[in-house]
Amino acid sequence: MALRRVALASANVVTRRLVPWVVLRGRQFSSVSVSVGQPTPATHPHLMQSGELTPGFTSDEYIQRRANLVAMLPPNSVVLLASAAPVHLPNTVIPIPGYRQDADFAYLTGVTQPGVVAMLQVGDQSGSDKKQSTYTLLVPPQSKHNDVWNGPRIDSNTAVSYFNAGEAHEVPNNMTRVLLSALAKSQNVFLDQSILQFDDGIRTALSTAGVLKRPPQALRPLMHRLRWQKSIGEIDAMKASVNASINGFRDAMKHSNDGINESEIGARHEFICKLHGADRLAYPSVVAGGSASLIVHYSAMNKLLGKGELLLMDAGCERNGYVSDITRTWPVCEKSGFSNAQADVYDAVLAAHSQCVAAAHVGVSLHELQLLSVEVLSQGLRDLGVKSDSVTNKSVPYQKYYPHSVGHWLGMDTHDTPSVSTSSAIAKGCAFTIEPGLYFPVDDPAVPKALRGIGVRIEDNLAVDPVTGEMEVLSAALPVGRREVEELVRELRR
Question: Nearest CA to 311 among 494, 485, 487, 474?
Answer without folding.
Answer: 485
